[in-house]
Design a protein that fits this description.
Blueprint: E1 2-10, E2 39-48, E3 56-64, H1 77-128, H2 147-150, H3 158-163, H4 182-191, E4 209-212, E5 215-218, E6 222-228, E7 269-273, E8 331-334, E9 363-368, E10 373-377, H5 382-389
Parallel strand pairs: 6-8
Antiparallel strand pairs: 1-2, 2-3, 4-5, 6-7, 7-9, 9-10
Length: about 400
C-alpha cells in the first residue's frame, strides 16, 4: 500500500517531536533537520515493508524555503590526494616525451645550420675552385680572418662582409679584438654584440658571448677540422702537449681543393660541433676552438705543420713571433672521440685539440665535405674518427 502526505511541520527548536499530521497513518520522528531553517516541507512516501512485519519504509525529500546556496559541497582529503597523485603520474609520463620532442627539434635545427654552412662552402668553392683557408697570416704577426669570415657573402651576409672590408684599405686592421689600431677599432664596433644564429646550436650551454677588453664577441658552436693527431703531417710538439695536424680541410694559409680530398668527399668531415661546456667546468676554460675575440679570428703563423717541430720555425711554441706561434683558432685537430669524460691540457682553448662535444644525447653533428650532415656517436671507434678527420690517409671509412 502506497500513501503520500504533505504537511508543514515545525522546527526542531520547539523540542517537540516532528511527525506527519495524519495520525491515522503513523507517527515518524525526525530529530536531524538543519537548525537554521524555520520550516520544512516534508514529503513522505512510505509503504508497508514486507520484510519487517508491517514496518514503514520512508523516503524523504527536504526542501528549504531559504536559499539553497547555504548548502556546501567539497572533496575529502583522500579524494584530493588521489587526484594529485594521478596528475603527478601523468606529468611524469608526459615530461620525458616533451623533452625528447624538443631536443629532436633542436638537433634538427643544428643539422640545418651545418647544411647552410656546407652550402656556403660549396658556393665559395664553385666561385674560387678551392675551399677558403682557415687563416691568411703574414709575417706581421697579425690575426687575419678565417674560413668563417670568407663565406659570409655566400650565406646572405654580403652587407656585413662589405663593412668588414677595411682589411684591404686600413693599415693595421686585424681580428684580434684587443688590438688598438684604427682599423681594428672599426671592426670591433661592427662585430661587438653581433649574433649569428647560423653559428649557434640551439642545444648549446656555451655562453652567447665572451669578452675581449670589455666588448662582447660571439662564441661559435662549430669548429673547422684540421686533420687527425695521427696524420703524417702532425707536429706533436704543440702548446700544452697538443698535436697539430695539416691532414684535414682547414690547414692554415693553404686553401684545399676538392681534388685534394682523395679519400672522398663523403668520407671526410670538414666541420664538427664544439658546443658544450666540458665536465668539471672551472668557470672560465670552455675548451673550445675560439678565442675571446670570437668567431672570425685566424692563426697568425703562416707556416704549416709537416712533422715534429715544423710548424714553429724554432721547433718550439712561442707567441712572441709570427712563425713560432702554434696556437690554433677556430680549427681542431681530432685526438679523441666525441664528448670525452676526462680533462687534459691539450684540450684547452686555442691549442690544437679542443674535442668535439655537444649537448645532444650520445654524440655530435658533423658536416662532411660533400655537404651532407651526419650524427656520430660517443662510442665511435677512434681509428674511424681519425679516418674521417683526414682527407688523404687512404683508409676505408666504414659505418658509424
Amino acid at each position: 500500500m502506497m500513501l503520500a502526505r504533505k504537511r508543514l511541520i515545525e522546527h526542531p527548536k520547539t523540542l517537540r517531536p516532528l511527525y506527519l499530521a495524519n495520525p491515522g497513518v503513523g507517527k515518524v520522528n525526525y530529530p536531524h533537520f538543519r537548525s537554521d531553517c524555520t520550516y520544512f516541507l516534508v514529503i513522505a512516501s512510505f509503504k508497508l515493508c514486507q520484510r519487517c512485519n508491517g514496518g514503514i519504509d520512508m523516503r524523504l525529500s527536504l526542501n528549504s524555503q531559504r536559499d539553497k546556496s547555504n548548502l556546501q559541497f567539497g572533496f575529502t582529503l583522500v579524494e584530493l590526494l588521489v587526484v594529485i597523485a594521478i596528475i603527478g603520474v601523468l606529468v611524469g609520463l608526459l615530461l620525458p616525451a616533451v623533452q625528447s620532442a624538443r631536443e629532436a627539434a633542436r638537433r634538427m635545427q643544428c643539422s640545418n645550420n651545418l647544411k647552410q654552412l656546407g652550402l656556403a662552402f660549396h658556393n665559395y668553392e664553385s666561385a674560387n675552385r678551392k675551399f677558403p683557408p682557415s687563416s691568411s697570416a703574414t709575417l706581421t704577426g697579425y690575426h687575419y680572418p678565417n674560413q668563417w669570415f670568407r663565406i659570409l657573402p655566400y650565406i646572405e651576409k654580403s652587407p656585413l662582409y662589405g663593412k668588414l672590408g677595411v682589411f684591404d684599405s686600413t693599415s693595421g686592421a686585424q681580428m684580434w679584438m684587443g688590438d688598438t689600431s684604427t682599423g681594428t677599432a672599426v671592426i670591433r664596433d661592427i662585430l661587438r654584440d653581433l649574433v649569428m644564429p647560423e653559428w649557434r646550436c640551439p642545444s648549446t650551454n656555451l655562453p652567447l658571448f665572451q669578452q675581449e677588453i670589455g666588448f662582447n664577441f660571439l662564441v661559435p658552436c662549430y669548429v673547422g677540422i684540421g686533420g687527425s693527431s695521427v696524420h703524417r703531417s702532425t707536429d706533436q710538439v704543440g702548446p700544452s702537449g697538443s698535436f697539430c695536424s695539416a691532414g684535414g680541410v682547414f690547414v692554415g694559409n693553404r686553401p684545399i681543393k676538392i681534388g685534394d680530398v682523395t679519400d672522398g668527399t663523403s668520407n671526410t668531415m670538414m666541420v664538427g660541433e664544439n658546443s658544450a661546456i666540458p665536465p668539471n667546468f672551472d668557470g672560465s676554460e670552455y675548451r673550445i676552438g675560439t678565442s675571446r675575440s670570437g668567431t672570425w679570428t685566424g692563426n697568425k703563423n703562416p707556416r704549416e705543420p709537416n712533422g715534429n717541430r715544423t710548424w714553429s720555425s724554432t721547433g718550439a711554441h712561442d707567441t712572441a713571433n709570427a712563425t713560432t706561434d702554434m696556437r690554433s683558432y677556430n680549427v681542431s685537430t681530432i685526438r679523441q672521440t666525441p664528448n670525452p669524460k676526462g680533462l687534459a691540457n691539450f684540450q684547452l682553448s686555442r691549442v690544437c685539440n679542443p674535442p668535439l662535444k655537444s649537448k645532444h644525447t650520445g654524440g655530435v653533428m658533423i658536416l662532411r665535405v660533400d655537404g651532407s650532415v651526419s650524427f656520430i656517436t660517443d662510442t665511435i671507434d677512434l681509428a674511424l674518427m681519425y679516418s674521417l678527420a683526414d682527407r688523404d690517409d687512404g683508409n676505408v671509412v666504414g659505418d658509424y
